[in-house]
Specification:
Length: 203
């Protein structure tokens, strides 16, 4: 379901690597190469933001679905004694539901866990905060980059200036990927916590 988004993200990173490998840094070519580099960096970030926005929308859909399922299963579990009494006697139309109340309640609880950890509440919050952080980082870097371009005022940068600009792009991408790694770490932590709580204690 998310494979297409991840594939697009990888393609953008590969294009960035290919673009950087083909840039020319001889005098007279540096300014154009820096513009190409900046555009390639923005393309990678835009792809990552789009990836998280897609997951954000999907998590909301899954959250709503899981909550509906939790309410439905919980209602079945709570009403199971009444259902059995009315229609679940031997030979009745719902006899197969006899003594299944605990099962429905467990399924309802599982739906809530899936919603909280994987599909909805926490996931949606993580994706939202990650998108905001990625976009804010992009704005800050773009402003800093344009500030350095303004200092050049269209002139060809010398070697040290070019090196500083390339390093700023590298540092920004490192920080950008660190934010994404942080979101993945939060997901792993939430999943481990949920699994630990779900363990049934021994006798």
């Amino acid at each position: 379901m998310w494979g297409g988004d991840a594939a697009a993200e990888r393609r953008a990173s590969v294009r960035l690597a290919d673009t950087v490998a083909c840039l020319a840094w001889a005098p007279g070519q540096r300014l154009a190469s820096l513009a190409t580099l900046a555009e390639a960096v923005r393309e990678v970030v835009a792809g990552d933001v789009a990836y998280y926005r897609a997951r954000q929308c999907r998590s909301k859909w899954w959250s709503n679905s899981c909550r509906v399922a939790a309410v439905g299963f919980g209602a079945l579990g709570a009403l199971q004694p009444l259902i059995t009494q009315l229609w679940g006697q031997s030979g009745g139309p719902l006899a197969c539901l006899k003594d299944t109340g605990q099962l429905w309640l467990m399924l309802g609880g599982l739906a809530l866990v899936v919603d909280t950890v994987w599909a909805g509440t926490q996931a949606h919050g993580r994706y939202t905060s990650t998108v905001m952080a990625l976009e804010a980082g992009m704005v800050r870097w773009t402003l800093a980059w344009q500030g350095q371009m303004a200092v050049l005022a269209g002139a060809e940068p010398d070697g040290p200036q070019t090196q500083r600009l390339i390093q700023s792009a590298s540092d920004f991408l490192d920080a950008h990927h660190a934010l994404m790694a942080s979101e993945a770490g939060q997901w792993r932590g939430a999943m481990q916590e949920a699994l630990a709580k779900a363990k049934v204690p021994g006798p």
